[in-house]
Design brief:
Largest sheet: 7 strands, parallel
Number of domains: 2
Strand content: 5-15%
Shape: globular
Strand order of the largest sheet: 1-3-2-4-5-6-7
CATH architecture of the largest domain: Orthogonal Bundle
Number of strands: 7
Order of helices and strands: EEHEHEHEHEHHHHHEHHHHHHHHHHH
CATH topology of the largest domain: Hypothetical protein af1432
Structural class: alpha/beta
Radius of gyration: 22 Å
CATH class of the largest domain: Mainly Alpha
CATH superfamily of the largest domain: Hypothetical protein af1432
């Protein structure tokens, strides 16, 4: 364990590497004591400048930084760390009074997650272990690029304008705003990413637009839309270069979500139709990541799909070794989404293992696409036929 650059303790090099930065020595001591039994190489710094010098020469797995520090604050340090070692997972520590600043830092990927002071020791250990496990999974599956390429997902400007009109209304309600957010998968993903990245005692995982908007606040939704619109043109161009119309992607996603909610409402024993809506809206997030980060092979995928008249999913299996479902699940795991959402997205083309949510999602996906040949759990086939007949009455 190293405190600053002066300590020359030898490390193994094959254990996870943690960098912790805080100007309060008592905080560094507390974290050192908490982590002393863990198999990590840990480097402690009481200022951002020394930490920047360290990460210039070594890429840590996890960086934990305090927010309020003299001279170089946490945002400034993590911003530099993001450029120097973009594959490191960045966690921020601070008091919850910094809410707006923290949301902005997470939204722009300066920090992946935020932990409030004082923290719960067991939760802190789980967070760090979970982050390291996710990094190892990404590395094994050669998905490291996700960590450095995802800052935002494209969103149609028309949808953004509708939400902005609601925000300008004097009589707007949270429910009205949440209903519009549900129609924009990119904004939905971003809001849930931010809200689930905030750790404090007693908070439950957030899985719906209403919960996310209520937690974040309408004022921040407006600034988030503005930030997304700045990135829109570049990302939209990348999508179109792959032969994909962004509006078509969003329309299919919303239709699938509406259908999934209807199926969930009639599903015996399932009582969370809003959760089904959320998952159905986000299941193809891995495709968007792929189109944005690997446009050349994505164009090959599109061409193969059109030439052979096969589904994108089948074409994907011939071009890539890792599916969009695995990419989407890995990304949402990094963003700390609820495990139920991650599992349903990860297996939306596989065996559902009898899970009701996964079955609902598969049925909605197949029925909305009209492609019954795409990979899925054959146990849902009877319900696919039933909901194919009902589809015309839903949207």
């Amino acid at each position: 364990m190293t405190t600053g650059p002066k300590n020359t303790n030898v490390t193994t090099g094959d254990r996870p590497c943690l960098v912790i930065v805080d100007d309060e020595r008592s905080i560094l001591s507390s974290l050192r004591s908490l982590l002393r039994r863990q198999q990590y190489d840990i480097f402690l710094f009481d200022n951002g400048y020394d930490a920047v010098e360290f990460v210039t020469h070594r890429t840590p797995d996890v960086i934990i930084s305090d927010m309020r520090m003299p001279e170089m604050n946490g945002i400034e340090f993590l911003d530099q760390a993001m450029l120097l070692c973009p594959t490191s997972t960045r966690l921020m520590l601070s008091g919850y009074e910094d809410k707006v600043i923290i949301f902005d830092a997470i939204a722009h990927s300066v920090a992946h997650q935020f932990i409030t002071k004082p923290w719960d020791d067991e939760k802190m250990l789980r967070i760090i272990a979970g982050v390291i496990a996710t990094r190892q999974e990404l590395r094994i599956r050669h998905l490291d690029a996700i960590l450095q390429s995802i800052s935002s997902l494209p969103s149609p400007p028309e949808a953004q304008q509708q939400i902005q009109r609601i925000l300008r209304k004097e009589t707007r309600t949270i429910r009205e705003l949440a209903a519009e957010v549900e129609k924009v998968p990119a904004l939905m993903a971003r809001l849930m990413r931010i809200s689930n990245s905030i750790y404090y005692s007693g908070r439950q995982p957030i899985s719906t637009a209403l919960e996310a908007v209520s937690f974040i606040g309408a004022e921040y939704v407006e600034s988030l839309i503005f930030a997304m619109s700045i990135h829109h043109h570049t990302e939209d161009k990348l999508i179109k270069e792959c032969g994909i119309e962004l509006d078509d992607l969003w329309r299919h996603a919303v239709h699938r979500a509406v259908l999934g909610r209807s199926i969930a409402e009639e599903w015996p024993g399932f009582n969370d139709s809003t959760l089904a809506y959320t998952v159905c809206l986000l299941i193809d997030i891995g495709f968007l990541v792929r189109f944005n980060t690997n446009p050349d092979q994505s164009r090959q995928l599109i061409t193969l799909s059109k030439t052979l008249q096969i589904s994108l999913h089948e074409a994907e299996s011939r071009v890539f070794t890792v599916s969009h479902a695995a990419i989407g699940a890995a990304l949402l795991r990094l963003w700390n989404f609820p495990a139920t959402i991650i599992a349903a997205i990860e297996q939306h083309h596989d065996d559902t293992r009898g899970d009701a949510l996964s079955q609902i999602v598969q049925i909605a996906d197949i029925v909305e696409s009209g492609d019954q040949q795409r990979a899925h759990d054959r146990r849902v086939d009877p319900m696919v036929k039933e909901w194919t007949k009902k589809k015309s009455h839903i949207y």
